[in-house]
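User: My collaborator and I are trying to settle a disagreement about how two of our proteins should look. Neither of us wants to argue from intuition anymore, so we agreed to look at predicted structures for both before our next call. Could you fold the first one, then the second, and keep them clearly separated?

Assistant: That sounds like a sensible way to settle it. I'll keep them separate. The first protein:
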Amino acid sequence: THGFDNGYADYNGYENQLHQEEIVCDFIGSIQKGTYDEVGEIKVSGKSSLGGGAATTGGQKFALTFFVFGTIGLAAYAATLHSKLTAGGKADLASTGGNMA
């Protein structure tokens, strides 16, 4: 019953208290693991910690490669369009006799 005596968890309004106690328990657990200090700041140590990591899958590697090359391709296409738009001479109204069309 998460620290509630006599089944108080069933009373109205205690859901928030229950949720807050779970958050506090998680925070205390993270202090014990060394992730945070007592005031809530992230604890950074000089040693490297590789626990809990997962290897990337083949699909993730493919998606990353696809999006990187796609971004490079779109950047090149944008540069090409930009150079085509700015390469043409500026339309001077004097040369067209003052008419825009």
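The second protein, kept apart from the first:
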Amino acid sequence: ILAGHSVLVAGNVQDAGTDESVWYLLDYQKGKAMPQTILGHLKAGIAAAHQDPTALLVFSGGQTRPAAGPISEGASYFIAADAMKLWDTGATSSSLNYN
């Protein structure tokens, strides 16, 4: 399980690993390399899941930022990983979103 810490808001999602403006960050998260931290978490979670062909990687986190609209942390992490092309070529992915 990869726990989310923010949601996407706009911008070039492929830059989600470096650009703070892509994320809805709270004041205490700004200026603290959150995009790079999120990218590191995504890469580590995908790498760990890739080690076991029966593994299931779950992006966790709800709609924690009402002002950002109806998007969850889990969905944001999935979308960011997909936009940044972090999947291995042999990996398969699917997205389920339960509100």
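Some points you might bring to the call about the second protein. DSSP finds two helices and four strands in the chain. The chain has a mean pLDDT of 89.
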